[in-house]
Amino acid sequence: MSKPNEFLFELGVEELPTTEINGLIQQLSDKIQNTLSNEGINYEKFQIFVAPRRFGFVIEGLPDSTPEKNIEKKGPAVNIAFDESNKPTKALLGFLKSNNSTLEEVKIIDNYVYITKTQNGLPIEDFLKVTVPSIITSLKFRKPMKWADGKYEFVRIPHHVLALLNGKIVEMEIFEIKSSNKTVGHRFVMDEYFEVNSVQDYFDKLSKYYVIPKLEDRIKFIKSQLEEFETNGYTIDKDEELIQEVAILTEYPKLISGTFLEKYLTLPEELIKTTIKHHQRSFTVHSGNKITNTFVAFIDMPMDELGNAKKGYERVINARLEDARYYYEKDIHFKLESFNEKLKEIVFQKELGTLYDKISRIEQLSKKIIEILELEKISDNILRTAKLCKADIGTHVVYEFPELQGIMGRIYALKDGEAENIAYGIEEHYSSNPSTVEGAVVGIADRIDTIVGNFIIGNIPSGSKDPYGLRSKTDDIFSIIEKFSWDLDLKILLEKAAELLGKELPTTLIEFFENRFELYNSNVRYDIARAVKHLWSTPLRGILSAKAIYKLLEKEEFEHLLVGFERVHNISKKHISEHFDSAKFVEEEEKKLLQKYIEVKPLVLDAIKHLNFENALEKLIELRPYIDEYFDKVFVMCEDEDLRMNRLGFLKNIDMLFMEIGDLTLIEHSQN
To answer: What does the alpha-carbon distance between residue 647 and residue 593 come to, in Å, rounded to a whole number?
Structure first.
């Protein structure tokens, strides 16, 4: 039995930009695996590797050749292929000859002649030499480079192509570079090319020459060095985002540590951490609960003489911390609120005014939320949070370090003597998981203003495009409402936000919220999510209803309820009016259903008001036998129009009561 084939490909390039790495990995993964799948090629293992100056992939367990394929070829139309005597014309005979086929192989499909030909499989080497260059040159990048007078365009200029099948060179050419069995090690260790003769040999030799080609292996290597450093009694802030970034930037990340001047420890910890991370991609170090003046960094220089690198890091970090200290001390001479004046000069969005205008709208929306939720006891705190929520954007520190927005607001507010909940509310209004009521209310108001404003000016998410993050902002609103169990009517807030902008509420916004709400609830079950999507404007009710429905799904009486509701809903869904006159009821069964409806309705509505949807469902279940008797004895669609309209109006009332829970016709019936 022959050994499974292994294919190794590497493209050596100039320094890859970090912003293109994730897209590169995704495209390579999708294109290669989709191509293999479309060709019916089985394989055992596929892996991608990316380092700053190279990327590539390994496919193990490939077959010797691609599988045979049956290909249908389309010929002339039947009226052209055959004459009036049903004999083949020259057109058909020519088609058959060119495809080495006979008349017996002809099939007629949709008035056209077809033949089926078997295409033999290609040797896997021939397949790879054609397919791989095509895939590589098809990769797209946000900011590609051009060279050779604009003839070529790629993420960065390539330098070598390595392509091996079982250790043998697969001849191909990419950007006029011919493939070989050679690659190069770390640029600071070995700049001469060396040969490799297998996948394992490739990884072994690169390791010897200080290159870790797999991103996940570099991440592990970074974490192991951080953990080893912590054995000295320290705790490192192991920022996952920073670890990923360092791994992307280095072929062989090596840890160095240094110190900055102790005087900078008087700065807020978040400012120290952000300065060190932002400017030098370095990690802060703690001893116990206190930050120290030690930092840890990684350099892409696997030599032992690291003294100069350490001094360089210390010099730059001290300089950056001095800048941060200067800006911080400049800010704290003023009250946080005073920076609101600067917001009059900062545009929020061109058609939506300044950040100062936005704050005014946030305050008004916060007032509306206070009114709806009856939060008057803490209204002063909430409105103070709203007033100060964007003030730190006008500070010097946030201008230099935008990622500290909200955090510096909290720090400066506490320094000014603001209440703790106000200070943390300022920070948390950006969070999807705030802990303070102040942060939650202002966060909802802020997001509502942004969403409505963007829809009004036409910035509507479509496909994968959502530059203002309106989808995630909407999901955050649902999440915050669920966390705080607030029975909040969003439609009131959306209309208020549109009013504050002097515009009508766009109808597209209703559909947008409805669709986001369906997706938000899809973690319960997709059919339940559809059933409650019309409750989007009171999301807490929709969320609790979805959970209550899910809890009762497997119970027999709930299955009965579904059937009963379907009978009511299907006959009344096109009827608009809820008007009916009980004096016109003729049959005993409609009187009985009316009596039960009158008994159950206030109990259902009271249960919903108190957010007890399980109890509301249980009460609705009591209607089922009366609904069955009604439809067994009462002919709703009778010829008497007055009687028919009266019965439909009555059933519409029952339908609307059910719809307070959800459109149960969308729930899939149990298969039991």
So the answer is: 12
Q: Which of these, 387, 393, 417, 421, lies nearest to 405 by C-alpha position? A: 393
Q: How far apart are CA 449 and CA 493, in angstroms?
A: 9
Type of residue numbered 232 = N
Q: How many CA atoms lie within 13 A of 550 on its CB side?
A: 17
Q: Is 82 helix (H, G, I), strand (E, B) or coil?
A: strand
Could you list the beta-strand ranges (E) of 275-415. Answer: 283-287, 290-299, 347-349, 353-354
Greatest C-alpha distance within the chain? 102
Residues 90 and 105: their CA atoms lie apart, in Å, by 17
How far is the C-alpha of 160 from the C-alpha of 147, rounded, in Å?
Answer: 15
Cβ–Cβ under 8 Å, residues 436 and 428: yes
What confidence tens digit (pLDDT) does each residue in 643-661 have? Answer: 889 889 999 999 999 999 9
Note the pLDDT tens digit of each residue in 162-175: 999 999 999 999 99
Please report which residue ranges of 622-665 form alpha helices under DSSP H: 624-633, 641-659
Identify the band that residue 305 occupies on the pLDDT scale cut at 50, 70 and 90: low
Please answer whether residues 422 and 438 qualify as being in contact, where contact means their C-beta atoms are separated by less than 8 angstroms.
yes
φ, ψ at 147 (rounded to 5°):
-150, 180
Burial 155-164 (b: 16+ CB within 10 A, else e): bbebebbbbb
Could you give the 3-state DSSP secondary structure of residue 74? strand
Q: Which residue has the tokens 């909940």?
A: 421
Tokens in use for 592? 């009985």
Structure tokens at 96: 């058959």
- Both tokens assigned to 158: 């390539």
Q: Kindly calculate the radius of gyration of the chain based on its CA atoms and give it in whole angstroms.
A: 34
Distance from C-alpha of 49 to C-alpha of 227, rounded to nearest angstrom: 25
Cβ of 146: how many Cβ atoms within 10 Å? 11
Q: What is the pTM for the complete model shown?
A: 0.78
pLDDT for 18-32, tens place per residue?
899 999 999 999 999
pLDDT of 221 > 70? The answer is: yes
407: Cα within 13 Å, side-chain hemisphere: 15
Strands of 96-206, DSSP E: 107-109, 112-119, 145-147, 152-154, 158-165, 168-169, 173-174, 177-180, 182-184, 193-195
Token pair belonging to 625: 């036998």
Would you tell me how many other CB atoms lie within 10 Å of the CB of residue 181?
Answer: 20
CA 4 from chain centre, in angstroms, equals: 38
